[in-house]
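Q: Convert this sequence to structure tokens.
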Amino acid sequence: MNRPDLPGKFAPGADPFAAHFVDPVLPGAVKTVTARLRETGLVTLSGLTTRAAVLDFARQLMDVQRQRDSGPDGLTAIDDTGQHLRWPRFSGQSSLVLSLHTEGSARVAPPRLMLLVCTEPAPQGGHSLLVDGRSLYAETEDCPEAVAALSNPRAGFFGRSGGTFAPVFAQHDGGQVPVRFRQDEFVRWHPLARLHLHALRMAAVRHQQMLTLEAGQGYLLDNRRWLHGRIAFDGARRCYRALGNPHEPAPPGFLPRSMGGGAA
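A:
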């Protein structure tokens, strides 16, 4: 079975699912989720066992955006179709590894929120991988050359002919730092940014966290702060994904240490 580039290495600490969990059926859950997203950019959930439940929860938090491969309701069913192994643009609809990335990185403005819920876990594999962009930035913050190269507006060209130039670490009003990153053939790097890619990828491996999602469990993340991916899997597996912008706007990304953001 295919594995991530450097498998078996995960950030130490508490179980990330338990650490970020909010029960979506409790009174005031939406308010709690919104506050957690502002603080850490990540919330884990359970009890969303049907497409209708996933959609209902997503609509409480975001304007669900229709995607290339979504249904009319805006949700995308993610499973192995058996037909997309040779199509890198559709690798999400296969059983292959998905390297850590920002969803919609080729867009001028990627969606702020991503909700992913597993309704049928794979018999083997398929675990989600997550990395907090603040952890990556913290490892470059003491290297001015790396910060300058990766913050350059033309650090990478994301996508193909209809893509966009963008930095890995952007600068937002108020000092927030949004992240944009991917590790496949759908990005071309500026030579100065390329000098720091190996160190950035190694940092991503050191800080990646793995979530093993059971039926009805999922996560909601700030897509401009957290990178996500998955390991390969065997057998049937189904997830539902919703993308959109939050009903209550908030600055994207995170505050770095130099702006009082604290340790990663």
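The chain has one domain: 20-248.
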